[in-house]
């Protein structure tokens, strides 16, 4: 069921960046790409679990930590979900005729700033 929900969100998002708000392709496809990278790493971890465990025993701990692909799955799908939430907020506020802007906290963390409507 979760997979079907994600698949539906992906299809709807592709429709939105293709036909409704094409200037949002960067944000839409970045959220999808980050999420899919996490999904790929999770599958690699599932398929090669025993090999990765043996590898981690032979390398320094700092290298072993970076090969914990299940952990990367959680980090990347969380980030991909966050970016998709930003995408959804941006498209909704545009629909409501507000003026959203993507700003970066500390120059790296994206967030949405919504300017109020102008009153005449």
TrEMBL record:
Pathway: Lipid metabolism; sphingolipid metabolism; Sphingolipid metabolism. Pfam families: Ceramidase. Zn(2+) binds at residues 70, 74. The keyword Iron does not apply. Its main location: membrane. Keywords: Hydrolase, Lipid metabolism, Membrane, Metal-binding, Sphingolipid metabolism, Transmembrane, Transmembrane helix, Zinc. It is found in: Membrane. Its cofactor is Zn(2+). It is a multi-pass membrane protein. GO terms for molecular function: metal ion binding; N-acylsphingosine amidohydrolase activity. It is an enzyme of class 3 (hydrolase). It catalyses: N-(9Z-octadecenoyl)-sphing-4-enine + H2O = sphing-4-enine + (9Z)-octadecenoate; an N-acylsphing-4-enine + H2O = sphing-4-enine + a fatty acid; an N-acylsphinganine + H2O = sphinganine + a fatty acid. PANTHER family: ALKALINE CERAMIDASE 3. Belongs to the alkaline ceramidase family. Hydrolyzes the sphingolipid ceramide into sphingosine and free fatty acid. This is Alkaline ceramidase. It comes from Myotis myotis (Greater mouse-eared bat).
């Amino acid at each position: 069921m979760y997979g079907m929900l994600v698949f539906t969100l992906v299809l709807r998002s592709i429709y939105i960046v293709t036909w409704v708000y094409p200037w949002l392709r960067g944000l839409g496809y970045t959220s999808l790409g980050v999420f899919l990278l996490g999904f790929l790493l999770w599958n690699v971890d599932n398929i090669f679990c025993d090999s990765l465990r043996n590898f981690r025993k032979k390398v320094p701990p700092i290298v072993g930590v970076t090969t914990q692909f299940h952990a990367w799955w959680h980090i990347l799908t969380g980030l991909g979900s966050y970016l998709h939430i930003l995408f959804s907020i941006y498209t909704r506020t545009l629909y409501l005729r507000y003026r959203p802007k993507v700003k970066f906290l500390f120059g790296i963390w994206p967030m949405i700033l919504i300017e109020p409507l102008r009153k005449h």
